[in-house]
Amino acid sequence: MSFKVPRGTQDILPSESWKWQQVESILREVCEIYRYKEIRTPIFEQTELFQRTVGDTTDIVTKEMYTFMDRGNRSMTLRPEGTAPVVRSFVENKMFGYPDQPVKLYYQGPMFRYERQQAGRYRQFVQFGVEAIGSADPAIDAEVISLAMEVYKRAGLKDIKLVLNSLGDAESRNAHREALVAHFTPSIGELCKDCQSRLEKNPLRILDCKVDREHPLMATAPSLTDYLNEESKVYFDQVKNYLAAIDIVYELDPNLVRGLDYYNHTAFEIMSTSDGFGAITTLCGGGRYNGLAEEIGGPSAPGIGYAMSIERLLLALEAEGKSFKQGPELDVYIVTLDEAAHRKGFNVLNELRSAGVRADMDYMDRKMKAQMKSADRFNAKIVIIIGEDEVNEQVVQLKNMTEGTQEKVEDANLIAKIKEQME
Ligand code: ATP
Ligand code: MG
């Protein structure tokens, strides 16, 4: 019997995880600059939370959720996305009562969707996202978009574009909905089964269909832009003005709908335009969801947020040929030549580590040459060599690998000497 990682998941090995850590530290830095605070919610939630918020007609809810009955016979779902759990927590913890509004949160962690595996599409993937809840100021829409762009900029991505749309308010969406029903009803038989059920439940979702994407009815479908009422138009114009004011360039796409049901007004995606990136080009998506908090039993609290996966960011970086720089792994590697030296080496190692020096030694009883090779692979700046003489004389040999020098150092002076050479 042999075991494999489940389909659509991956092990992130030490040869890759350091890249993840670099990206994660960029994310944290940007959030600090924009004053977004981390929130951590459970990996699973009541199934109904996602059914109500993400929406009964979305791909996520109809096909992609990992749902199970727990031992108390409650239906639970591994979270497929982060917004619903965050807004659930916002309502449950009465964050709407916090003195500083909007409440600005970020999260990062695994999400689960039962998808067909392909490049950039996993069944477990790590999403980073932010939510600003409590303000309907169009400037905060621009802030969230700017934060998203800043993340990609700091990560070193160049070939990206921002695509923007407005879904309007409820009135605009209702007017558009009627137009969609009128447009699709006569030939609905030509579209897939999912679209046929979407026609009644949520015709807007038809525009986001992955099966019928190329059907001629799609291109001629009534555009939301033409159905925005005055208020929605003004709001959208303000968002655009704020973006222009901070030099954020965007493309308008009236067919940009987004995956979840509760979006209104601003919707956006950032895509990779790099040739090497393949079929899936969306790096992140976000939008405004003014009705969401109310939908799950809270007070009215307008919100906006976005989410991206770290997997796709790393793929985009690779497609652009951006390489990460990995610094030296170790400051000091200790080479020991016999058993007494090994015991002394172990004490020295402990002293170094207590002083905050990154250090390691051989535990495989290898020959000096093999130990020196390890020091080399770890890119150690300093190698300490201890043999019989060094033990007797209470000294060590200190080899500075960058300068190519070697000197005898007394045990008592070792830490000071190492610190000096590390500067
Ligand atoms: P898509 O149209 O690609 O399926 P989506 O509308 O399902 O995207 P969202 O739910 O908005 O995507 O998720 C936001 C972001 O999360 C995406 O832009 C992408 O970066 C990432 N993402 C979504 N699904 C996956 C997945 N299965 N594997 C890796 N990343 C994903
Ligand atoms: Mg999807």
From TrEMBL:
L-histidine binds at residues 81-83, 113, 127, 131, 258, 262-263. GO terms for cellular component: cytoplasm. GO terms for molecular function: ATP binding; catalytic activity, acting on a protein; histidine-tRNA ligase activity; transferase activity. Keywords: Aminoacyl-tRNA synthetase, ATP-binding, Cytoplasm, Ligase, Nucleotide-binding, Protein biosynthesis. The keyword Zinc does not apply. It holds the Pfam family HGTP_anticodon. It is found in: Cytoplasm. GO terms for biological process: histidyl-tRNA aminoacylation. Belongs to the class-II aminoacyl-tRNA synthetase family. Homodimer. This is Histidine--tRNA ligase. The gene is hisS-2.
